[in-house]
Amino acid sequence: MQVVNKTRNIVLSRNAGIANTLFGRMRGLMFSGRKDLVLDCGFDDATAAAIHMLFMRFPIDVIWADSKMNVVDLQENVQPFNPLKPSTWRIYKPEKPARYVIELGFPLFGSRFSVPSFQFPEVFSSRKPKTENRKPRTEDWRPNRLGTTEIGDKIEFKQNG
Question: Which domains are assigned to the chain?
Answer without folding.
Answer: 2-158 (2.60.120.1140)
